[in-house]
Amino acid sequence: MLVNLVDVLKLAEERQCAVGAFNTPNLECIHAVLHAAEKLNVPVILSHAQLHEEVSPLGKIGPVMVLAAQRAKVPVCVHLDHCETLDYMREALDLGFTGVMYDGSLLPYAENLANTQKAVAMAKPYGAGVEAELGALASREGGASNASGPVYTDPDEAVVFCRETGIDAFAPSFGTAHGIYKAKPVLDLDRVKVIAEKTGLPLVMHGGSGVSPEDYRTGIRNGLRKINYYSYMSKAGTNAVRELLAREDVTFFHDLAYAAEQAMEADAEKAMRVFAGL
User: Fold this and answer.
1) Cα–Cα distance, 265 to 38 (Å, whole number)
2) Catalytic status, residue 81
3) What Rg, from alpha-carbon coordinates, does the chain have?
4) Structure pTM?
5) Domain assignment of residue 83, given as a range
6) Based on the structure, what is the number of domains in the chain?
7) What CATH number does the domain containing 264 carry?
8) Which entry of 81, 103, 168, 215 is annotated as an active-site residue?
9) How confident is the chain (278 residues) per 10-residue block, as mean pLDDT?
């Protein structure tokens, strides 16, 4: 069933767990994530990142995501991830997305604040929840390096930002990075707890792939209610295709796609079990 971002985060808060948010730039990803969520009977978030526009246009994949969510047996939010332009956000809202994340984290504070306020005002008539970010991760969405490194979110600044924007979920920077980790991340999970207590909002972990189960659990205890996860799930699909091609002379692409889907489902299920405390 299709639900909005606020509702799915309320479920996570009630259960003292986190909901997984998985980028789904193709049908195999959508099937993998929803099959895993339905198997475990947990809520989930299907996400579309603006950086995937070239390979998976919002106008094509968005309606598929919304329809799949409507038909799902568990609560599903369809969410726009790392949106950097308000026009693109409007397109997603018009398609029926029930959550949006405006990412002005690389902008000066005042500009990020002003644009996030506009995003909240835009989403309100649609009944969609809004997430925003303050600070910057060690790498950008898609794994591109951020030369300046991580910029940790100041808790007091976060309080002002959340209050003045009226957002529904907040993504602080506390040491995670997008993409594949080359070394074990060092996370400031105490910062997460302080920000959660000061803002009173559900917090979001970006760059969730590759974090240890122990750090996930600590982060959830400290206030994380949404964990973004994609890179390692996608990598599992790629590895499955490589292994199949090494074993067999595969003729049909659909056999490769199915192998990838099965592997991604298994990886997503593993992550969901940790997020949900199962």
Assistant:
1) 11
2) yes
3) 18
4) 0.91
5) 5-276
6) 1
7) 3.20.20.70
8) 81
9) 97 97 97 98 96 94 98 98 94 98 90 96 97 69 45 90 97 75 70 96 87 93 96 96 96 97 98 96
